[in-house]
Design a protein that fits this description.
The complex is a heterodimer of chains A (65) and B (260). Chain A has 65 residues and is mostly beta strands. Chain A is built from 1 helix and 5 strands; from the N terminus they run ββαβββ. In chain A, a hairpin with a 2-residue loop joins strand 3 and strand 4. The mean pLDDT of chain A is 96. Chain B is an alpha/beta fold. Helix content of chain B is 40%, strand content 16%. In chain B, the strands form 3 sheets. Chain B has a 5-stranded parallel beta sheet with strand order 5-4-3-10-9. Chain B has a 3-stranded parallel beta sheet with strand order 6-7-8. Chain B has a two-stranded antiparallel ribbon with strand order 1-2. In chain B, strand 6, helix 4 and strand 7 form a beta-alpha-beta unit. Classes of the chains: A mainly beta (65), B alpha/beta (260). Strand 5 of chain A pairs antiparallel with strand 4 of chain B.
Chain lengths: 65, 260
């Protein structure tokens, strides 16, 4: 199915958020996620089903003022 | 010197420093060390799959042994800010959040209605909220009512380096909320601006670009630290009141009569 990951459209073969993250190369520990603008806790990723067209955001620590 | 108290934590330094826009990570680290700051601000940004940039940056910050204040910079709605805060809490393992809800993309003026709404939600979720606001007294009152225990009015709009653009308004805010920690956040360009904020009784100053974009960030960080310490001491010392009438400092009593 086609979803949006960090603003970019991409084809993924998995449905669970945890699996999609691995499929997209997110294997390190330091990131947080949101699905369609809603925070998804680390422990909820394995039970969160992603639907076609959904927006996944993956963020990490960055510089800020 | 009295300590700065923020949500039950005590700090010697009254300078909070941003981590953005430094020429290099090593310049950032040098500036943090030179400033003696104990609190730095961070943000959350998209990370590409397979990248370790965020982790690398996070390891640098952890090595500095400072308290982390994540921000919600760039959020234009209460909902966006709340989600960002929730992600920050998981990522940084802190319930502190510098709450920014921007209302105007050109002036970066805070959306104070959205700010109060987000503050209410985050306080209910037991965050420790540091709201980036204006000098508006009514908004400040609403933020406190929403559960905030700190206020962070701007000195001037973000990145303008104009100093305290409405000193009268900032003085009024300071005197209205005497027992609340109030921090000047944004718009500071020079150590004299920061010193002025401290002289009129502000508890601390948060700044970023004035240090990061200086030719020598570490030296500028040190200059800010000195300015803030001087301003604080002056406030505690009780400055004399200005007068329209000149007055000699040397007494005229017993002056010799030298007329010809």
């Amino acid at each position: 199915m086609r979803i949006i990951v960090n603003g970019e459209s991409r084809e993924v073969s998995n449905q669970l958020l945890s699996e999609i993250l691995v499929e997209c190369g997110y294997q390190q520990a330091h990131f947080a996620t949101a699905l369609n603008g809603v925070f998804i806790h680390r422990q909820q990723r394995e039970s969160t089903r992603v639907m076609p067209g959904d927006r996944v955001e993956v963020v990490a620590p960055n510089a800020g003022g | 010197m009295t300590m700065l108290e923020l949500y039950g934590k005590s700090f010697e330094s009254r300078l909070l420093l941003g981590t953005a826009r430094y020429p290099s990570p090593s310049k950032l680290a040098e500036a943090v060390q030179a400033s003696n700051t104990e609190i730095v601000t961070l943000s959350l940004r998209r990370e590409a799959g397979g990248s370790h940039a965020g982790e690398k940056f996070w390891n640098l910050i952890k090595s500095l042994d400072v308290t982390i204040l994540p921000n919600t910079a760039g959020c234009y709605s209460a909902r966006e800010a709340v989600t960002t805060a929730q992600m920050a809490r998981e990522l940084f393992q802190t319930d502190w959040i510098k709450l920014e809800v921007i209302g105007d993309s050109e002036s970066l003026h805070p959306d104070t209605a959205g700010l109060v709404e987000a503050a209410r939600i985050l306080n209910a979720e037991e965050f420790k909220v540091f709201p980036y606001t204006t000098e508006d007294l009514v908004v400040a009152e609403k933020l406190l009512h929403a559960g905030c225990e700190v206020l962070m009015p701007w000195g001037a709009p973000i990145g303008t380096a104009r100093g305290l653009s409405n000193e009268y308004g900032l003085r009024t805010l300071r005197s209205r909320f005497e027992t609340i920690p109030v921090i000047i956040d944004a718009g500071i360009g020079l150590p004299s601006h920061a010193a002025r904020a401290m002289e009129i009784g502000y508890d601390a100053v948060l700044l970023n670009t004035a240090v990061a974009r200086a030719e020598d960030p570490a030296r500028m960080a040190e200059a800010f630290a000195e300015g803030i310490r001087g301003g604080r001491s002056a406030y505690l010392a009780g400055p004399m009141q200005p007068s329209d009438m000149p007055q000699t400092s040397t007494s005229l009593a017993n002056k010799a009569d030298l007329r010809e």
